[in-house]
UniProtKB/TrEMBL annotation, chains A, B:
Chain ranges of the HTH arsR-type domain: 1-88
Single GO term (MF): DNA-binding transcription factor activity
Protein name, per record: ArsR family transcriptional regulator
Top-level division of the source organism's lineage: Bacteria
NCBIfam families cross-referenced by the UniProt entry: HTH_metalloreg
Length: 104, 104
DNA sequence: TTGACATGCAACCATTTGGTTGCCTATTGT
DNA sequence: ACAATAGGCAACCAAATGGTTGCATGTCAA
C-alpha cells in the first residue's frame, strides 16, 4: 500500500498512468514521446510503477509493452478513501462548527 | 491536487490522518503521544497536511486544535480514482489476455 | 551480417525530504 | 508573579529522489 501511495505521489508518474489509461500496451519509446524528460528518467518512473504493481510489462522481442494494472488504484479507493468517506459529514460538520465558534 | 498526493505519500502523515479520523480536534501534544518521533517532526508533518488542506487548525489559547478536512480525500476518489474505475475491466481483461499470450 | 533501433545499466549530481537539537515565545494555573 | 505547559523557529544532517550522461546489450531488417 505504501509503495502505491509513493508511486502516485509524483506527477510524471501519474501522467504516465494517464497515458496508459488512454492507450494501453505502449512501449517505452512511445511513452517517452513529447515528454520533457530523458528516456532513462521515464524508465526509472516505470520501474517504480512496476514495483508498486501499477504497471505490468511484457517483453515482445526487443520491445517492452506496458500495461496498466488498475487493481491497486481500486484498492486505494476501497480500503483507504472509503474509510474517510464514512464519517465525512460528521467531520465536516464539526469543522464548520469549530470555525464558526472561533469568530465569536 | 499534487500537494494532496504528496502529503498522502508518507506513512506517518497518513497515520496522523487516521488518528484525527478516530478522534477529531486533537492538540499537537495529543497527536505526538506514543509516536516514535519528536514533536517538531510531527509539527512538520502537520504543516504539510495543512498546506494540502487535509487538516485545518484552530488556536484556542495556547493550544492548537487539529481538525480533519475530508474534502480533498473525497476529491481524489472522485476526480482521480473514478477515472481509472471506468475501463478497469477492459484494462484487466487486456492484461490477462496479454499475459496468457506470453506463455504460448 | 551488419547497422539501426529498443532497451538496460551504472555513475554521477542537485535538490528535497524527514528527521534531529537547541532555544525562544506565549499562555495558563497556582 | 512565576513556573510549568503548549507550541514556534532555525540550523543542521543523512538519506532518498528525480534527473542527467555515457556506454553496453539484445533484436530486427535490409
Amino acid at each position: 500500500m505504501d509503495e502505491v501511495f509513493k508511486a502516485l505521489a509524483d506527477g510524471s508518474r501519474r501522467s504516465l498512468l494517464d497515458r496508459l489509461h488512454a492507450r494501453n500496451g505502449q512501449t517505452l519509446n512511445e511513452l517517452c514521446e513529447g515528454l520533457a524528460m530523458s528516456r532513462q528518467a521515464v524508465t526509472k518512473h516505470l520501474v517504480i510503477l512496476e514495483e508498486a504493481n501499477l504497471v505490468t510489462t511484457i517483453r515482445h522481442g526487443r520491445e517492452k509493452l506496458h500495461y496498466l494494472n488498475p487493481v491497486p488504484i481500486h484498492q486505494i479507493g476501497e480500503r483507504w478513501i472509503r474509510k474517510f468517506e464514512r464519517g465525512k459529514l460528521a467531520a465536516l460538520g464539526e469543522l464548520k462548527r469549530q470555525l464558526e465558534k472561533r469568530d465569536e
